[in-house]
Amino acid sequence: MERNISIKELLFVMIFAIIYTLSFLVSPIPAVGLTGLLLFVLVFYKFQEIGFFIPFFGIILLRPIFLAAGIERALLLFLLISSMAILSAFLNRKKLALPQINTALILFFLLYAMFIIGLFRSPEPAYAYEKVGIMFFYSVIPFVIMQMLHRSHDILENTHRIMILLSLYLIVASIAQYLVKGVGAYERFTIGLGPIGYARAVGIGIVVSIYSFDRERSTKWRMLSIFIFLGSIFFIIVGATRGPFLAAMATALFYIVFLSRANLSVKVGLPLVMGGMIYFFMKKGAFLFARLQSTAVGQEISANYRYILWQTALEHIWDHPVFGGGTGYFASFVPVNLKSTGLVYPHNIFLEFNIEWGVIGLSLLILLLAYTALYSLRLMKWESKRETGLNSHLAIVLFVYALMNAQISSDIAGNYLLWMSISLIAVVYIAKKRESLPNNRGFQE
Predict the structure, then answer these.
(1) pLDDT attached to residue 33
(2) Closest by Cα among 199, 96, 179 to 144
(3) Residue 429: C-alpha distances to residues 108, 224, 367, 389 (Å)
């Protein structure tokens, strides 16, 4: 049963988002930061399921509070992400069940075990231990807890609404900061986090709002979806981050063409509306389009850095072809001028796996992605385009969006959205399979 969230609750989220942002901007002192954290606890208490889905957005929802409190220890943020997932599981424990063993879960843990084994062969142990440790709190714990939702149809059915609320919180917070501080002509807008992580989270808002508008019958939720869509389009443009922008646009088109229940005229009209919004915001997004143009002619600095990283990875791809050079191996031969900027991984998930864990690691990754794609195809086959039960189509488009982003940025720890979307698809698949085979005892995948 879908949760009917009231207007008062929506206003509660919006007011909190404004207070949250202004506390960070106006008075960055510990007392204000701790007050913001207490306010976040109030939101969590009112919406006890959000801990399952905060990991999709990363630390963007929490870091400004930590900065306001003068706390710069990133590990505490990652610990808080997993703690919120655990707390949501505790508060909803009557709805949960132990994870159902499935191929995606097995392959994911084989990959993580390989990362741990790779620590003992790492030429860059400090970096390697950091990224494996961050991934444990950032993705492994939330991945497992997500797997416990396979009997929680009401929570799975409300996935899009919970993500709309989290996106609302992000957009309202962004509006508050934008009105107070604005953004320079050649600056990338963000709130308390690097522009890539921020843009990825805003991109989720684009994908979820289109899905929600297409699926919802409630006028209130459709209007809210339009607001999230417009806000997300605007802030991903002023964020001037190319990868998430292009990935969000491509994913939105994928959904509209292949999964939307809309008729042909709407399928043609929606991309035109998106294009119109982009054109309307173009003046504010001049920096983004300048970056896209300079990338096309090979003159954009960060894009050229990526070409260097990819070329370096290809040059070393046969150093240790079977087992790889160990976790963090790529960082050992990154040029010093790039290492000082934090560019210590290839910015491509396939190159990272091949370099650091060899053909075995790459094969496990491809198997995990292939099984996720197989689950997705089966879900698409099972679902009527008139009824997308348990948000299976949303899980699919989140996976598509995450996989696109993983080709141009982040390492295993930073690709939290990919791991979480895989877990969501697997758990929805298990729930739908059981639903389609109600008399199948001892269900086997």
Answers:
(1) 56
(2) 96
(3) 16, 28, 17, 11
Which among 281, 326, 390, 425 has a CA at the least distance from the CA of 115?
326
Spatial separation of the C-alpha atoms in residues 407 and 409, rounded to whole Å: 6
Q: How many CB atoms lie within 10 A of CB 174?
A: 26
Token couple for 390: 């348990």
Classified as helix, coil or strand, 387 is strand
The residues, ordered by sequence, that sit 6+ positions from 80 with a Cβ below 8 Å of its Cβ are 62
Q: CA 170, CA 239: separation in Å to the nearest integer?
A: 13
Question: For residue 123, which phi and psi values (nearest 5 degrees)?
Answer: -80, -10
Three-state DSSP state, 384: strand
List, for residues 216-231, the tens digit of each pLDDT value: 888 989 999 999 999 9
Average pLDDT value for residue range 159-166: 91
At 274, the pLDDT band (50, 70, 90 cuts) reads: confident
Given this model, what pLDDT does residue 17 score? 73
